[in-house]
Amino acid sequence: MLHLPETLSSSLSSSLASPIRLLALRDTALSLDEVYAAVGDDAAGGTALFVGTVRDHDGGKSVTSLEYSAHPSAEAELRRVAEKVAADFPVLSMAAVHRTGLLSIGDVAVITAVSCPHRAEAFAACRLLTDTLKHEVPIWKRQLFVDGTEEWVGAC
Length: 156
Prior knowledge:
The protein is 33% helix and 37% strand. The N and C termini lie far apart (51 Å). The protein is of the alpha+beta class and 156 residues long. The strands form 2 sheets. Strands 3, 4, 6, 8 and 9 form a 5-stranded antiparallel β-sheet that branches. A hairpin with a 4-residue loop joins β8 (139-145) and β9 (150-153). The chain has a single domain (19-153), classed as Molybdopterin biosynthesis MoaE subunit (Aldehyde Oxidoreductase, domain 3, Alpha-Beta Complex). α3 runs antiparallel to α4.
C-alpha cells in the first residue's frame, strides 16, 4: 500500500474536491450573505457575484410580478452546468441559487458567484455560469403585466 506524506495527501484530496459549494432552487428569499460565504476561499484573488432581480418592465410593458417554475430535472441540470464551468476555468469555489414561485418587483431571482485565483477568471466564469444557467437549466418564468396580460418565457 502506498502511503503519501500527510501534506501531499491532503493537498491531493483538496485538489480533487469539487469547487461547487452551493447549488439550490428555493421557494424562499435568497441570501447574498449565504452565497458569498459559500464561495469564500483564502486562495482566491477574485470573487465575482451576479445578482439578478425582478425589474418593473419588459419589452415596453410594465411588469407587476414574475412566477418561476422549475422542471424536476432542474437541479441536476444546474449541477451539470456548474461542473462544466468548473472544468473550463481555475475555479476555487462556486455557488448558484435560483428562486421559484411568485416574486415581486425588486426581489432577488438568482445569485451566482465564483472565486478564482484572479479577477479576470472569476468574472468570465461567473458570466458563463449565469448565462448557461439561464439558457440550459429548465426554469421558466411567467411575467404578469400591469394591463392584466401574461407571458411565459422558456428557460429564464
